[in-house]
UniProtKB/TrEMBL annotation:
Protein name, entry field: RNase H type-1 domain-containing protein
Biased composition (Pro residues): 1-10
Phylogenetic classification of the source organism: Eukaryota, Viridiplantae, Streptophyta, Embryophyta, Tracheophyta
Region (Disordered): 1-32
One Pfam short name: RVT_3
Organism: Aristolochia fimbriata (White veined hardy Dutchman's pipe vine)
C-alpha cells in the first residue's frame, strides 16, 4: 500500500479527490455532478487556494486518471474546458508536476471528500508546515 509523501522543502503539494454517495453515478460539489466533473471542480477549488502561496514546484496529486490527464494534456470535455482554462491560468507561472496516485496515497483527500458530500461548507485539510 502506497502512502502519502510530503513535498521537498520549499515546494507545495495539492491532493484532491471527489466523492459520490448513494447513486454511484453522481457526486456533489454544492450541487449534483458526474464524478469526473466533481473531481475537476474540487481541483479548481484547491488550485485557487494556491494563488497566494509562495512555493517552488507545485505537486498536484489525485486518484482520477481522467482529471490528471485532462490537466496535463489540456484536452478536457467541452463542458469542463472553462474549469481547466482557469486552473492553467492560475498555475501558468508555476512549475507543476501532475501525478496520478493510488487512492491509498490520497487517503486524507479521500476522507475529506467523503465527509464533505454531506456538508454544505468546503472542507480543507492542511498539513503544516508546508
Amino acid at each position: 500500500m502506497e502512502e502519502w509523501k510530503p513535498p521537498p522543502p520549499g515546494d507545495i503539494k495539492l491532493n484532491f479527490d471527489g466523492s459520490a454517495t448513494g447513486s454511484p453515478g453522481q457526486a456533489r460539489v454544492q450541487q449534483t455532478y458526474a464524478p469526473p466533473e466533481a473531481e475537476a471542480l474540487t481541483l479548481l477549488s484547491g488550485v485557487k487556494l494556491l494563488r497566494e502561496q509562495a512555493a517552488g514546484t507545485v505537486y498536484v496529486e489525485g486518484d482520477s486518471y481522467l482529471v490528471i490527464n485532462w490537466a496535463k494534456k489540456g484536452k478536457p470535455p467541452w463542458k469542463l474546458k472553462h474549469v481547466f482554462e482557469e486552473i492553467q491560468l492560475i498555475l501558468v507561472e508555476r512549475n507543476v508536476i501532475w501525478c496520478k496516485i493510488p487512492r491509498s496515497a490520497n487517503s486524507l483527500a479521500d476522507h475529506l471528500a467523503k465527509d464533505g458530500v454531506s456538508k454544505r461548507e468546503m472542507l480543507i485539510g492542511l498539513q503544516w508546515p508546508l
